[in-house]
Protein backbone atom coordinates (compact mmCIF):
# COMPACT_ATOMS: atom_id res chain seq x y z
CA UNK A 1 0.00 0.00 0.00
CA UNK A 2 2.75 2.43 0.97
CA UNK A 3 4.75 1.60 -2.18
CA UNK A 4 1.68 2.22 -4.36
CA UNK A 5 1.12 5.63 -2.79
CA UNK A 6 4.78 6.52 -3.26
CA UNK A 7 4.69 5.49 -6.96
CA UNK A 8 1.54 7.53 -7.59
CA UNK A 9 2.92 10.62 -5.86
CA UNK A 10 6.24 10.28 -7.72
CA UNK A 11 4.45 9.94 -11.06
CA UNK A 12 2.35 13.03 -10.28
CA UNK A 13 5.39 15.10 -9.33
CA UNK A 14 7.20 14.17 -12.54
CA UNK A 15 4.44 15.86 -14.55
CA UNK A 16 4.92 19.18 -12.73
CA UNK A 17 7.35 21.70 -14.29
CA UNK A 18 10.76 21.62 -12.54
CA UNK A 19 10.50 25.28 -11.46
CA UNK A 20 7.21 24.59 -9.69
CA UNK A 21 8.38 21.26 -8.34
CA UNK A 22 11.26 22.92 -6.45
CA UNK A 23 8.81 25.19 -4.62
CA UNK A 24 6.64 22.32 -3.38
CA UNK A 25 7.62 21.23 0.14
CA UNK A 26 8.37 17.56 0.63
CA UNK A 27 5.34 15.57 1.77
CA UNK A 28 6.10 13.38 4.81
CA UNK A 29 5.76 9.68 4.05
CA UNK A 30 2.49 8.05 5.20
CA UNK A 31 4.02 6.25 8.18
CA UNK A 32 1.82 5.25 11.15
CA UNK A 33 3.37 8.10 13.16
CA UNK A 34 2.66 10.73 10.51
CA UNK A 35 -0.86 9.44 9.91
CA UNK A 36 -1.58 9.54 13.66
CA UNK A 37 -0.24 13.11 13.93
CA UNK A 38 -2.37 14.16 10.95
CA UNK A 39 -5.43 12.58 12.56
CA UNK A 40 -4.69 14.31 15.88
CA UNK A 41 -4.32 17.67 14.11
CA UNK A 42 -7.62 17.12 12.29
CA UNK A 43 -9.41 16.32 15.57
CA UNK A 44 -8.01 19.47 17.20
CA UNK A 45 -8.94 21.71 14.26
CA UNK A 46 -12.43 20.23 14.07
CA UNK A 47 -13.00 20.74 17.81
CA UNK A 48 -11.81 24.35 17.67
CA UNK A 49 -14.01 24.96 14.61
CA UNK A 50 -17.07 23.78 16.56
CA UNK A 51 -16.18 26.15 19.41
CA UNK A 52 -15.75 28.98 16.91
CA UNK A 53 -19.14 28.38 15.31
CA UNK A 54 -21.15 27.87 18.51
CA UNK A 55 -19.44 29.71 21.39
CA UNK A 56 -18.16 33.19 22.18
CA UNK A 57 -14.75 34.44 21.10
CA UNK A 58 -13.43 34.19 24.67
CA UNK A 59 -14.28 30.50 24.89
CA UNK A 60 -12.90 29.83 21.40
CA UNK A 61 -9.59 31.46 22.32
CA UNK A 62 -9.50 29.38 25.48
CA UNK A 63 -10.05 26.20 23.45
CA UNK A 64 -7.09 27.18 21.26
CA UNK A 65 -4.97 27.71 24.40
CA UNK A 66 -5.96 24.29 25.76
CA UNK A 67 -5.12 22.45 22.55
CA UNK A 68 -1.88 24.44 22.30
CA UNK A 69 -1.01 23.43 25.85
CA UNK A 70 -1.66 19.79 24.98
CA UNK A 71 0.73 20.07 22.02
CA UNK A 72 3.42 21.68 24.20
CA UNK A 73 3.09 18.87 26.76
CA UNK A 74 3.41 16.30 23.98
CA UNK A 75 6.03 17.83 21.69
CA UNK A 76 9.05 16.10 23.26
CA UNK A 77 7.46 12.72 22.41
CA UNK A 78 6.73 13.38 18.74
CA UNK A 79 10.06 12.07 17.43
CA UNK A 80 9.89 8.78 19.32
CA UNK A 81 6.17 8.22 18.78
CA UNK A 82 5.55 4.82 17.22
CA UNK A 83 1.83 3.94 17.31
CA UNK A 84 1.29 0.33 18.40
CA UNK A 85 -2.24 0.08 19.81
CA UNK A 86 -3.94 -3.02 21.12
CA UNK A 87 -6.50 -4.44 18.72
CA UNK A 88 -9.49 -3.81 20.96
CA UNK A 89 -8.07 -0.41 21.93
CA UNK A 90 -7.92 0.57 18.26
CA UNK A 91 -11.55 -0.46 17.81
CA UNK A 92 -12.76 1.40 20.91
CA UNK A 93 -10.71 4.47 20.02
CA UNK A 94 -12.10 4.52 16.48
CA UNK A 95 -15.70 4.15 17.71
CA UNK A 96 -15.21 6.93 20.27
CA UNK A 97 -13.68 9.22 17.67
CA UNK A 98 -16.52 8.61 15.21
CA UNK A 99 -19.04 9.35 17.99
CA UNK A 100 -17.19 12.58 18.89
CA UNK A 101 -17.30 13.75 15.28
CA UNK A 102 -20.97 12.82 14.88
CA UNK A 103 -21.95 14.50 18.17
CA UNK A 104 -20.01 17.64 17.24
CA UNK A 105 -22.11 18.00 14.10
CA UNK A 106 -25.25 18.40 16.26
CA UNK A 107 -23.91 21.34 18.30
CA UNK A 108 -25.28 24.70 17.19
CA UNK A 109 -25.43 26.73 20.40
CA UNK A 110 -24.40 26.31 24.05
CA UNK A 111 -24.01 22.62 24.80
CA UNK A 112 -22.24 21.48 27.96
CA UNK A 113 -21.21 18.23 26.29
CA UNK A 114 -19.03 20.17 23.85
CA UNK A 115 -16.49 20.81 26.61
CA UNK A 116 -16.18 17.06 27.25
CA UNK A 117 -15.64 16.15 23.59
CA UNK A 118 -12.01 17.34 23.58
CA UNK A 119 -10.79 14.99 26.37
CA UNK A 120 -12.88 12.15 24.93
CA UNK A 121 -11.29 12.77 21.54
CA UNK A 122 -7.86 12.91 23.19
CA UNK A 123 -8.51 9.59 24.93
CA UNK A 124 -9.59 7.99 21.67
CA UNK A 125 -6.39 9.21 20.01
CA UNK A 126 -4.40 7.73 22.89
CA UNK A 127 -6.11 4.35 22.47
CA UNK A 128 -5.28 4.47 18.77
CA UNK A 129 -1.59 5.08 19.53
CA UNK A 130 -0.70 2.98 22.57
CA UNK A 131 -1.75 -0.03 24.58
CA UNK A 132 -3.80 0.85 27.69
CA UNK A 133 -0.86 0.06 29.99
CA UNK A 134 1.18 2.81 28.29
CA UNK A 135 -1.47 5.53 28.17
CA UNK A 136 0.40 7.25 31.00
CA UNK A 137 2.63 8.93 28.40
CA UNK A 138 -0.43 10.99 27.41
CA UNK A 139 -1.20 12.05 31.00
CA UNK A 140 -0.23 15.72 30.68
CA UNK A 141 -1.94 16.33 27.30
CA UNK A 142 -5.11 14.66 28.57
CA UNK A 143 -5.01 16.77 31.74
CA UNK A 144 -4.74 19.86 29.55
CA UNK A 145 -7.81 18.79 27.58
CA UNK A 146 -9.67 18.14 30.85
CA UNK A 147 -9.39 21.88 31.51
CA UNK A 148 -12.23 22.47 29.04
CA UNK A 149 -14.88 20.68 31.15
CA UNK A 150 -13.21 22.12 34.27
CA UNK A 151 -13.65 25.60 32.77
CA UNK A 152 -17.35 24.97 32.13
CA UNK A 153 -17.74 23.70 35.71
CA UNK A 154 -15.99 26.76 37.14
CA UNK A 155 -18.26 29.03 35.12
CA UNK A 156 -21.26 27.33 36.73
CA UNK A 157 -19.98 27.19 40.32
CA UNK A 158 -18.17 30.49 40.92
CA UNK A 159 -20.51 32.90 42.80
CA UNK A 160 -21.90 35.52 40.44
CA UNK A 161 -23.26 38.20 42.80
CA UNK A 162 -20.17 38.76 45.01
CA UNK A 163 -17.85 38.87 42.00
CA UNK A 164 -20.13 41.35 40.19
CA UNK A 165 -20.24 43.64 43.24
CA UNK A 166 -16.46 43.45 43.68
CA UNK A 167 -15.93 44.16 39.97
CA UNK A 168 -18.10 47.27 40.20
CA UNK A 169 -16.25 48.49 43.31
CA UNK A 170 -12.80 48.03 41.80
CA UNK A 171 -13.86 49.63 38.50
CA UNK A 172 -15.12 52.65 40.42
CA UNK A 173 -11.85 52.77 42.35
CA UNK A 174 -9.77 53.03 39.16
CA UNK A 175 -11.99 55.84 37.88
CA UNK A 176 -11.77 57.73 41.16
CA UNK A 177 -7.97 57.41 41.06
CA UNK A 178 -8.11 59.17 37.68
CA UNK A 179 -10.04 62.02 39.34
CA UNK A 180 -13.40 61.29 37.71
CA UNK A 181 -16.69 61.96 39.51
CA UNK A 182 -17.77 58.33 39.85
CA UNK A 183 -20.54 56.81 41.94
CA UNK A 184 -20.84 53.08 42.60
CA UNK A 185 -24.28 51.82 43.62
CA UNK A 186 -24.32 48.04 44.05
CA UNK A 187 -23.57 46.73 40.53
CA UNK A 188 -23.74 50.12 38.80
CA UNK A 189 -20.72 52.28 37.96
CA UNK A 190 -22.07 55.76 37.23
CA UNK A 191 -20.50 58.89 35.77
CA UNK A 192 -22.33 62.22 35.26
CA UNK A 193 -23.03 61.41 31.60
CA UNK A 194 -23.97 57.74 32.01
CA UNK A 195 -22.65 54.46 33.30
CA UNK A 196 -22.72 50.67 33.19
CA UNK A 197 -24.27 47.89 35.23
CA UNK A 198 -22.14 44.82 35.91
CA UNK A 199 -24.14 41.66 35.18
CA UNK A 200 -23.10 38.03 35.24
CA UNK A 201 -21.73 37.76 31.68
CA UNK A 202 -19.56 40.86 32.23
CA UNK A 203 -18.21 40.30 35.74
CA UNK A 204 -15.01 38.56 34.62
CA UNK A 205 -15.79 35.06 35.88
CA UNK A 206 -14.89 33.69 32.46
CA UNK A 207 -11.57 35.55 32.44
CA UNK A 208 -10.77 34.42 36.00
CA UNK A 209 -11.46 30.79 35.10
CA UNK A 210 -9.51 31.18 31.86
CA UNK A 211 -6.36 32.53 33.54
CA UNK A 212 -6.61 29.88 36.27
CA UNK A 213 -6.74 27.16 33.62
CA UNK A 214 -3.83 28.80 31.77
CA UNK A 215 -1.93 28.56 35.06
CA UNK A 216 -2.56 24.81 35.16
CA UNK A 217 -1.33 24.52 31.55
CA UNK A 218 1.86 26.35 32.52
CA UNK A 219 2.35 24.06 35.52
CA UNK A 220 2.03 21.00 33.28
CA UNK A 221 4.18 22.31 30.42
CA UNK A 222 6.83 24.14 32.49
CA UNK A 223 6.73 22.52 35.95
CA UNK A 224 7.65 24.42 39.11
CA UNK A 225 9.00 22.24 41.91
CA UNK A 226 8.28 24.56 44.84
CA UNK A 227 4.86 24.05 46.42
CA UNK A 228 4.93 27.64 47.65
CA UNK A 229 5.36 28.90 44.08
CA UNK A 230 2.60 26.58 42.85
CA UNK A 231 0.28 27.99 45.49
CA UNK A 232 1.16 31.52 44.40
CA UNK A 233 0.31 30.60 40.79
CA UNK A 234 -3.11 29.22 41.75
CA UNK A 235 -3.94 32.24 43.92
CA UNK A 236 -2.59 34.95 41.62
CA UNK A 237 -4.16 33.67 38.37
CA UNK A 238 -7.83 34.50 39.15
CA UNK A 239 -6.83 37.81 40.75
CA UNK A 240 -5.09 38.88 37.53
CA UNK A 241 -8.20 37.93 35.54
CA UNK A 242 -10.46 39.87 37.90
CA UNK A 243 -8.31 43.02 37.90
CA UNK A 244 -7.90 43.08 34.10
CA UNK A 245 -11.66 42.78 33.69
CA UNK A 246 -12.24 45.71 36.07
CA UNK A 247 -10.09 47.85 33.77
CA UNK A 248 -12.38 46.86 30.90
CA UNK A 249 -15.50 47.75 32.90
CA UNK A 250 -13.96 51.10 33.87
CA UNK A 251 -13.23 51.81 30.20
CA UNK A 252 -16.81 50.94 29.24
CA UNK A 253 -18.09 53.28 31.96
CA UNK A 254 -15.97 56.09 30.51
CA UNK A 255 -17.42 55.43 27.05
CA UNK A 256 -20.98 55.43 28.41
CA UNK A 257 -20.31 58.60 30.41
CA UNK A 258 -19.21 60.37 27.23
CA UNK A 259 -22.23 59.44 25.16
CA UNK A 260 -20.88 56.24 23.62
CA UNK A 261 -23.11 53.75 25.41
CA UNK A 262 -24.53 50.41 24.36
CA UNK A 263 -25.17 50.37 20.63
CA UNK A 264 -22.21 52.54 19.72
CA UNK A 265 -19.36 50.91 17.83
CA UNK A 266 -16.75 51.84 20.44
CA UNK A 267 -18.74 50.43 23.37
CA UNK A 268 -19.76 47.23 21.60
CA UNK A 269 -16.21 46.63 20.34
CA UNK A 270 -14.84 46.42 23.89
CA UNK A 271 -17.98 44.88 25.35
CA UNK A 272 -18.78 41.94 23.11
CA UNK A 273 -16.50 42.08 20.09
CA UNK A 274 -12.80 41.47 19.48
CA UNK A 275 -11.74 44.43 21.63
CA UNK A 276 -12.65 42.50 24.76
CA UNK A 277 -9.96 39.96 23.83
CA UNK A 278 -7.34 42.69 24.31
CA UNK A 279 -7.85 42.45 28.05
CA UNK A 280 -7.63 38.65 27.91
CA UNK A 281 -4.31 38.99 26.12
CA UNK A 282 -3.06 41.49 28.70
CA UNK A 283 -4.10 39.15 31.52
CA UNK A 284 -2.27 36.19 29.94
CA UNK A 285 0.80 38.38 29.36
CA UNK A 286 0.90 39.58 32.98
CA UNK A 287 0.39 36.06 34.27
CA UNK A 288 3.14 34.77 31.98
CA UNK A 289 5.55 37.37 33.35
CA UNK A 290 4.71 36.38 36.94
CA UNK A 291 5.10 32.69 36.12
CA UNK A 292 8.46 33.16 34.39
CA UNK A 293 9.66 35.15 37.39
CA UNK A 294 8.75 32.26 39.70
CA UNK A 295 10.33 29.76 37.31
CA UNK A 296 13.58 31.73 37.12
CA UNK A 297 13.92 31.53 40.90
CA UNK A 298 14.38 27.76 40.58
CA UNK A 299 17.04 27.94 37.87
CA UNK A 300 20.67 27.59 38.99
CA UNK A 301 22.74 30.80 38.84
CA UNK A 302 24.81 31.40 35.73
CA UNK A 303 28.53 30.61 36.08
CA UNK A 304 30.67 33.64 36.87
CA UNK A 305 32.63 35.00 33.88
CA UNK A 306 36.39 34.32 34.00
CA UNK A 307 38.44 37.06 35.60
CA UNK A 308 41.14 38.85 33.60
CA UNK A 309 44.39 36.98 33.84
CA UNK A 310 42.76 33.58 34.42
CA UNK A 311 43.44 30.91 31.85
CA UNK A 312 45.53 27.96 31.03
Descriptive account of the structure:
It is a single chain. By secondary structure, this protein is mostly helical. It folds into 2 domains: 28-155, no CATH class; 158-296, no CATH class. It contains 13 helices and 3 strands. A 3-stranded antiparallel beta sheet has the order 1-2-3, with helices on one face. Strand 2 (188-191) and strand 3 (194-197) form a beta hairpin.
Features:
mainly alpha, Transmembrane exosortase (Exosortase_EpsH), Exo/Archaeosortase_dom, protease, 3 strands, 4% strand, 3-stranded antiparallel β-sheet, transmembrane, cell membrane, 2 domains, 312 residues
Please bin the fraction of helical residues: 55-70%
Low-confidence stretches: none
Cross-sheet strand order for the largest sheet: 1-2-3
Arithmetic mean of pLDDT: 83
Distance between the termini: 62 Å
Main pleated sheet: 3 strands, antiparallel
Radius of gyration, taken over Cα atoms and rounded to an integer in Å? 25 Å
Q: What is the H-and-E element order?
A: HHHHHHHHHEEEHHHH
With helices defined by DSSP (H or I, 4 residues minimum), what is the helix count? Answer: 13
Domain module count: 2
Question: What overall geometry do the principal axes of the alpha carbons give?
Answer: globular
Strand content: under 5%
Q: What would you call the structural class?
A: mainly alpha
- Count every beta strand, where a strand is a DSSP E run of 2 or more residues: 3
GO molecular function, one term: peptidase activity
Subcellular location: Cell membrane
Organism: Cyanobium gracile (strain ATCC 27147 / PCC 6307)
Keywords: Cell membrane, Hydrolase, Membrane, Protease, Transmembrane, Transmembrane helix
Amino acid sequence: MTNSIERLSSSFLQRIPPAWRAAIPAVPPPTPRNLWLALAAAVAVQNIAVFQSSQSEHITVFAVLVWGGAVICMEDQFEELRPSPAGWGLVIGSVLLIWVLARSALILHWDGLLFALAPIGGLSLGLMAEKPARLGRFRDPLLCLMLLPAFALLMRTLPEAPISLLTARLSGLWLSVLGLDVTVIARSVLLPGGGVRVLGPCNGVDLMAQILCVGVIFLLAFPIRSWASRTVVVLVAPVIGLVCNTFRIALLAVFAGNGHGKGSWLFDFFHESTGSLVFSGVAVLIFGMVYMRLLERELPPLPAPPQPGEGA
